[in-house]
Amino acid sequence: MTTHTTAIETQAEPRAGWRGWTALAVLMLPVLLVSVDNTILNFALPAISRDLEPSSAEQLWIIDAYSLVLAGLLVTMGSFGDRVGRRRILLIGAVGFTLVSVLAVFAPTAGWLIAARAAMGLFGACLMPSTMSLLRSIFPNRDQRRVAVAIWAGMFSAGAALGPIAGGFLIEHLPWQSVFLLAVPVLVVLLVLAPVFVPESRDPHPAPVDVVSIALSMLALGPIAFGIKEIAVHGWAGALPVVIGVVFAWLFVRRQLRASAPMLDMALFRRWGFTGSLLVNLFSVIALVGFLYFASQHLQLIVGLSPMAAGIALVPGMLLSIAGGLAVTPIARRHSAAVVVPACLTLALAGYLVVAFSGAHDLWLIVIAFTLLGAGVGAAETVSGELILANAPAAKAGAASAVSETAYELGAVLGTSILGGILTAGYRSTLAVPAGVPDDLAAHARETLAGAMNAADTLGGEVGRALRDAAAAAFDGGVALTAFIGAGLVVLSGVIAATTLGRRR
């Protein structure tokens, strides 16, 4: 009876025409950009490290400042989009992101670059919730929306694939600053086409702007993400920000439950399909980004590949991520998400176990492992992403999409901070600096793998080779430990999917 009713409802929903699909193509531009921005710096990091000489903490901040700020503001910007117009917020984000990207080109220090990345996070928070929430209004027909979400997820993966290749090409032929200029042509095209093809949408009955809730959401998400990063790098001494963030999160939830027109409808989280899908996305992204963090450094600094060649080595995994998202769409129509998502994540688990048991010594093993990981995560996130939209009322699509994007971006932060922090700790604890290395170069070697390789190049000779071998052995030992933890996250994600997503197709 339920299946029959659902089929009738699906047929009654209006179907989008060519303008809807054109709008989807336009909305994929910011998705592509933000995804590229998440991975391009992983491959530019060795060049940045050689030029700006950041500490290990600054190195992580260069990657994570963007995601950290973006995660803290996504709920706020998603709520603003529901009120003032999702397309309007999208265009504001595009203008700001373009200007800040140009400023990042002139970064003379690591601190400047971190500040620019944080500003990109501010405007990126305007871009991402708008793209997914607009899909909810452009494609009211759920079958069409499922395909649109698969394309959205595929474009996110395509951007992750394009980032290393484009970044590698630019770094080989131009200074590393050129990677930030990729945003300019993409966003100029968006600013021209979005007003023509993307329809405006908003909540027809918006609540008044709640400044207190906005402040509480930022004070909750920002310190939590920052604190987890600090714990990963410095141990439990960095736990205070997490405690502060949890307190503000409790105050935020309490205010939303008591408000007559809350900024974020907490009733969404009582829907197991919504909450379970969010957690699946969170842990899957942590596993995916964490893998990219150590794989990009291993391929360049240990295997010796150029940045572009290292990016190309990971292309099969990214392509399988796109293909997995599209291939799972017809399967998800016929089978329960509680079965489909864990089955997809089994592939991702196999990818991490390949690295955990065999190490990262062989280039082809890394390629195979990331191919399995990409295919599994891409397929799982397509199903869970569509369930998030399906469980949210159309009028609250912006806020629901913002929560979904918060899970993505927190996953990106935690992928580098938790798995990257564990990898860094393992590297430092096992690195045996050979005799004959001067104290100043030894200090650089203990900071990061890039610092060790730079020190080895400076020394040369037998001592340089010995330092290079010692650093490679310490790093690969940390990779094995990190891979086991990544496998555990994938298992946790599969268990959550099996127990929360229910029998609904």
Explain what the structure shows.
- The structure is a single chain.
- The protein folds into two domains: 17-198 and 263-500, Growth Hormone, Chain: A, CATH 1.20.1250; 211-262.
- It is built from 18 helices and no strands.
- The protein has helices at residues 2-12, 18-52, 56-84, 86-104, 110-138, 142-173, 183-197, 211-234, 240-258, 272-302, 307-313, 315-334, 337-358, 363-390, 397-430, 439-447, 449-459, 461-500.
- Helix 10 (272-302) packs antiparallel against helix 18 and helix 17 runs antiparallel to helix 18.
- The longest helix has 40 residues, at 461-500.
Describe how the helices and strands are arranged.
Blueprint: H1 2-12, H2 18-52, H3 56-84, H4 86-104, H5 110-138, H6 142-173, H7 183-197, H8 211-234, H9 240-258, H10 272-302, H11 307-313, H12 315-334, H13 337-358, H14 363-390, H15 397-430, H16 439-447, H17 449-459, H18 461-500
Helix pairs in contact: 2-3, 2-5, 2-6, 2-7, 2-10, 3-4, 3-5, 3-8, 3-15, 4-5, 4-7, 5-6, 5-15, 6-11, 6-12, 6-14, 8-9, 8-15, 10-14, 10-15, 10-18, 12-14, 13-14, 13-18, 15-18, 16-17, 17-18
Please name the CATH topology of the largest domain.
Growth Hormone, Chain: A
CATH class descriptor of the largest domain: Mainly Alpha
The name of the CATH superfamily of the largest domain reads MFS general substrate transporter like domains
Binned strand content: under 5%
Q: Major sheet: size, sense and barrel closure?
A: none
The mean pLDDT is 80
Radius of gyration: 22 Å
Question: How many beta-strand runs?
Answer: 0
User: Helix proportion of residues, in percent?
Assistant: over 70%
Alpha-carbon distance between the two ends: 14 Å
Q: What is the total domain count?
A: 2
Secondary-structure element sequence? HHHHHHHHHHHHHHHHHH
Poorly predicted regions: 1-11
Shape: globular
Number of helices: 18
